[in-house]
Amino acid sequence: MKSTFWHLVSALIVCIVVLVGYGIWYGAITAKSAVVADLQNQIDAKTETAHRITAARATLAGIAGDEATVQNFFVPESGVVAFIDVLEKKGKVHGAAVSVSSVATAGTPAQPTIAFAFTIEGTFDAVMRTVGSIEYAPYDLSVSALSLSQGDKRSWHADIKLLVGSVPAARSSARESSTIILSLLHHAHL
Fold first, then answer.
1. CA-to-CA distance for 85 and 25, rounded, in angstroms?
2. Is 102 within 8 Å of 130 (Cβ atoms)?
3. Cβ 76 vs Cβ 167: under 8 Å
4. Which of 98, 63, 97, 95 is nearest to 83 (CA)?
5. For residue 122, which phi and psi values (nearest 5 degrees)?
6. Is the pLDDT of residue 94 over 50?
């Protein structure tokens, strides 16, 4: 009977040791599983951030192209001379002489404009075609005053005041803006 009792006790002890060992290993595996789950959450968060940054870059690249297109409709403060050359060339194409009499900044800091005053001289047809080509030029402009008078039988004279949308020289380019935004996005999320 002793041997059966000791077999039972030893089987019970082995069973308890196995159950305690199982509990310790279960706790260790549960702790490791929590660490792995936390790491997976961090990886998912970083992946999502990387996807958002990629999407922001793609969006900014598209916006940069659109901004460059829109900027072409404005005359920058540094491009006034080139714009005057455009006006004079439009007159030459139609056989009229364009001469700029004054240029001044106007508008508000939020919406700067440049005010031009110029005259166009030539035949009636040349003067009117030049006025039309300037008025419908691909710029943000408006004719604020126009007066037309006849000099002699074949000579006409038009005085025009024109407001042209402008961009200040200090405004940064689209590429600089997008680089700054991407840098801020990268540092904020990583």
1. 84
2. no
3. yes
4. 98
5. 160, -165
6. yes
E strands, 108-155, in order: 112-122, 141-150
Spell out the residues 6+ positions from residue 54 whose beta carbon is closer than 8 angstroms to its own: none
What does the pLDDT look like over 32-45, one tens digit per residue? Answer: 999 999 999 999 99
C-alpha span between 47 and 92 (Å, rounded): 60
Please give the Cα distance from 172 to 170 (Å, whole number): 6
**What Cα–Cα distance (Å) separates residue 40 from each residue in 7, 29, 31, 36?**
48, 16, 14, 6
Is residue 189 within 8 Å of residue 141, measured between CB atoms? no
What is the mean pLDDT of the segment spanning 20-41? 92
- CB count, 10 Å around CB of 60? 19
pLDDT at 174 over 60: no
Q: Is residue 150 a contact partner of residue 9, using CB atoms and an 8 Å limit?
A: no
| C-alpha 49: how far from chain center | 20
For residues 80 and 90, what is the distance between their CA atoms, to the nearest angstrom? 15
pTM for the model stands at: 0.59
Locate tokens 């106007």: which residue? 106
Q: Hey, what are 18's tokens?
A: 């196995």
Question: For residue 153, what pLDDT is reported?
Answer: 81
